[in-house]
Specification:
Elements (H helix, E strand, L loop, with lengths): L5 E5 L3 H13 L3 E5 L2 H10 L4 E5 L7 H11 L5 E6 L3 H9 L4 E5 L3 H31 L10 H13 L6 E5 L5 H10 L8 E5 L5 H9 E2 L11 E2 L1 H4 L4 E5 L6 H13 L1 E2 L8 E2 L3 E6 L3 H6 L5 H7 L2 E5 L8 H16 L9 H9 L5 H15 L7 H4 L16 H15 L4 H8 L3 H11 L9
Parallel strand pairs: 1-2, 1-3, 3-4, 4-5, 6-13, 6-14, 7-10, 10-13
Antiparallel strand pairs: 8-9, 11-12
The structure holds adenosine-5'-triphosphate (ATP) and magnesium ion.
Amino acid sequence: MKPTARIMVVDDEKIVRESVSVWLQKSGYEAVPVEGGQQAIDLLQTEQWDVLLVDLKMPRVDGFKVLHKSIETNADIPVIIFTAYATVETAVEAMRAGAYDYLVKPIDPEVLSMKVEKIVERQHLAQENAVLRKNIDTLCQFDEIVGTSKPIQQVLDLIASVADSDATVLITGESGTGKELVARAIHRNSPRRYKPFVAVSIGALPSTLVESELFGYEKGAFTGADHMHMGKFEMADAGTLLLDEIGEMDQKIQVDLLRVLEERSFTRLGGSREIDTNARIITATNRDLQVEVREGRFRQDLFYRLNVIEIHLPPLRERGDDILFLARHFLEKYNAKSNRKKQGFSSAAIERLTNYQWPGNVRELENAIERAVVVGKGPQIQPQDLWLNAEQSPPKEEKLLPLKEAEKRHILQVLEETDWNVSRSAQILQIDRATLYNKLKTYGLSRPKDRS
Ligand SMILES: Nc1ncnc2c1ncn2[C@@H]1O[C@H](COP(=O)(O)OP(=O)(O)OP(=O)(O)O)[C@@H](O)[C@H]1O
Ligand SMILES: [Mg+2]
């Protein structure tokens, strides 16, 4: 589909402005004839235009003034000027002053169409590019890595300092701590950001396939290889290659990988041509590679090659307030995604979230919050909505409570369940409202948003 555009056609000669406008309208543009320079300047300030066609020689306010004004108010509108044969020098002067192009009178409709079409298409591409770049650039910040705790801030600092180098990075941490997220953040903040990011999970592949996945194969390399297959090293060339779960890599491929890292080249299976690679290598593992080395399952020389810079992601349970920070982040995410309006977490839910051990780390937290947002009943998220695995929780140091404390907590729970509806809570508690108000005062309880 041809992109549309809103075009202003300014000429003091009625026949010119009208015939040009009609021609452009027939070609599918929105063209508006304007009879003089001053009107054009007024319209530039009050309406949105994509292209400006303007005659140079007009009484009072001429084409130059319109051009200057247009540049002054909106440098992005391309201006094409009309000029007679006799004044081509003036046209050149106008181009120097910032006009995009010129057309010689009498205007040839074919030339006009061609020039306008080219401008509009170029503008359209530029807009698309700007949107794409903006999308990529916003992703370039770390804002998808949520957390304010000291350990995660240290991780962000490390990402920032290694991103623009080509150094090999080893990302370690338990499952679900965000290793892949960090690898992507390094790529997006590196000069390679417009090149591919290729992730391959070594653990997910049978070891016989790892080699052909990484290095590719030539047609006829083995039975069934009926076409050439490009490996991940080739795909990631000039970009970043994440070798995930590197601890699962078997010994033979460790040797191959070491060779590629040393020689920066490889051959496809069944081939003999050396292919250079300029991929930046990031590896990730939830195993302790030093233990793997000590026990002879991972080559020490490869370990040193990969471990030039280590980024360790601490488990979620060691990130303090990040748990709640992330919980709120995911609450908002899934509120928006599932069209819910959960208002937050009850204090009992908060206690549950902070006391839980999170063996599955951020991934487990995200899943728990998504589920709670989607299936939870009340306006707030309650502990029972979280469905956390009780066995994995540490034994809560639940002392037996004094009666007053138990009463206070019970009242609070009822109020949270009813979204602080005092009448409804009084009914459930089978006391009258005045008594409930007295108790709220005694225990210093108030609705969270009323608190100063
Ligand atoms: N700090 C964070 N902020 C926001 N989301 C996060 C954060 N850390 C992890 N996540 C999210 O948690 C999920 C798991 O993260 P990721 O896949 O990066 O973990 P991983 O360490 O690679 O896990 P595994 O070892 O199981 O492969 C993803 O959906 C990711 O977006
Ligand atoms: Mg991962």
